[in-house]
Design brief:
Elements: H1 9-66, H2 72-84, E1 94-98, E2 103-106, H3 128-138, E3 140-148, E4 155-165, E5 170-177, H4 179-218, H5 222-233, H6 251-293, H7 296-321
Antiparallel strand pairs: 1-2, 1-5, 3-4, 4-5
Length: 326
């Protein structure tokens, strides 16, 4: 666990800055994940509605077959051609497969038509058509894969959705490219990165100002001031208090003034204590002499010695009284 007691003010502010940066990074990461999740969800919902529409078109031709107005072959052929001509989004299209995995109508890649695609993979090694047929046989479902755009050879990520048409053993579906999601996430990441850098720069500037303000008011680091106070309080008046040039108003400057005054008071007390001791000894000597002689001269000397003793004691008392803190 981090201990702040011995840390410099600047180091403490750096810790705060790091904490803020980590918080911003977490928020940005969460936001980017949400952007990607919501964008993919929007794509998923859109292609689901499109496939439902395509299935509705096929259902229209199934109805014509049921009414006897078209044979099954005619109804299926017209349904294929109706879906083949439809385009949406960025030239996206529909496709049809049967339950055996044979391509019936692939508007974007007619060369696949007539071929059984089971067991084949996309450029990433994913058994694309196996997944497609499995989802269709189950009723409906999504799957992710990679596939080149029309006229291109480089595969791009796509999300597909299919629905089964059990009456004809067909599977209708579509897929849309989702590389735009990654682009949106990358752009958002750049925006969040720039914003985070600006926030950190502003925070660093204010941290510097706050650090300088605190250190200037204290006259040094808080732990240095506390240590100097502790030593002086314990009686160590020889502690070295270093001040910046022209520092007359900080806490450390006031502490140094107090230290100097305490030194002077202590020196005065020691000097007066020594004088008082000498005067007590002199008074004792004069008192013994007077006791032996009982002369007027010795009596006057005794009174003078007592007066000096009283003045010195009064000075010493005043020096001690200066120790009282208001």
């Amino acid at each position: 666990m981090i201990s702040f007691k011995r840390m410099r003010v600047s180091a403490r502010l750096v810790v705060i800055g790091v904490a803020v940066f980590l918080g911003l990074a977490l928020i940005a990461g969460y936001t980017l994940v949400q952007i990607k999740t919501e964008a993919l969800a929007a794509h998923s919902e859109r292609i689901k509605h499109l496939v439902e529409t395509a299935k509705g078109i096929v259902a229209g031709y199934q109805k014509l077959e049921a009414q006897g107005r078209l044979s099954r072959d005619e109804a299926q052929l017209q349904a294929k051609e109706a879906l083949r001509s439809l385009r949406f989004g960025r030239n996206d299209y529909f496709f049809l497969y049967n339950y055996e995995g044979r391509g019936l109508m692939i508007a974007g890649s007619p060369k696949i038509e007539g071929k059984i695609m089971l067991g084949k993979t996309d450029a990433a090694g994913f058994l694309l058509w196996d997944a497609l047929i499995a989802r269709g046989r189950e009723g409906s479902g999504y799957f992710d894969y990679v596939f080149p755009r029309a006229g291109q050879t480089v595969s791009k990520p796509k999300r597909g959705f299919v629905m089964g048409i059990p009456e004809w053993q067909w599977i209708v579906g579509t897929g849309v490219y989702v590389d735009d999601v990654d682009e949106a996430v990358n752009q958002a990441a750049i925006r969040y990165g720039v914003a985070s850098l600006l926030v950190m720069a502003i925070l660093a500037w204010f941290s510097l100002l706050v650090s300088r303000s605190i250190v200037t008011q204290l006259g040094g680091e808080p732990q240095d001031a506390a240590e100097s106070m502790r030593k002086i309080a314990s009686g160590d008046l020889g502690v070295d208090i270093v001040l910046e040039k022209d520092d007359n108003h900080s806490l450390m400057a006031s502490l140094k003034v107090m230290q100097m005054k305490l030194k002077n008071i202590t020196a005065a007390i020691q000097e007066n204590s020594l004088t008082l001791t000498q005067q007590v000894q002199g008074f004792d000597q004069v008192a013994r002499t007077h006791a032996e002689t009982r002369s007027d001269e010795n009596f006057h000397a005794l009174r003078r010695a007592a007066g000096r003793l009283g003045k010195t004691a009064d000075v010493l008392d005043k020096s001690i009284a200066r120790f009282k803190l208001q």
